[in-house]
Write a structure and sequence with these properties.
about 100 residues, alpha+beta, Alpha-Beta Plaits, two-stranded antiparallel sheet, globular
Length: about 100
């Protein structure tokens, strides 16, 4: 099994993820490309001390972009939607 920090790379904080957090108790994370749902569930439960109810994953394709006069491609990455059990929450902005 990989390290927790190799599985959960960072939380994604956008308007859509904030809305999912408020209404559905779902948090969005950027995760490692090789991480599966069970590893993501165990990593979130262990790192944040919460109970995970469901995990959904999405592979995001990198966009083709122009850099000056050259064309390039951004890297592919993976994100996970983690739904917590009722009564559990994660405070991502602790001081």
């Amino acid at each position: 099994m990989a390290e927790i920090h190799d599985i959960i790379l960072r939380p994604l904080v956008t308007e859509r993820s904030a809305n999912a957090e408020a209404h559905q108790n779902t948090y969005v994370f950027e995760v490692g490309e090789g991480a599966n749902k069970l590893e993501i569930k165990n990593a979130v439960e262990q790192f944040f001390a919460v109970k995970v109810e469901d995990v959904r994953t999405v592979r995001v394709r990198g966009k083709f972009k122009r850099f000056g006069r050259h064309y390039g491609k951004r890297s592919n990455w993976k994100k996970a939607y983690v739904k917590l059990a009722s009564g559990h929450s994660i405070n991502l902005f602790e001081a």
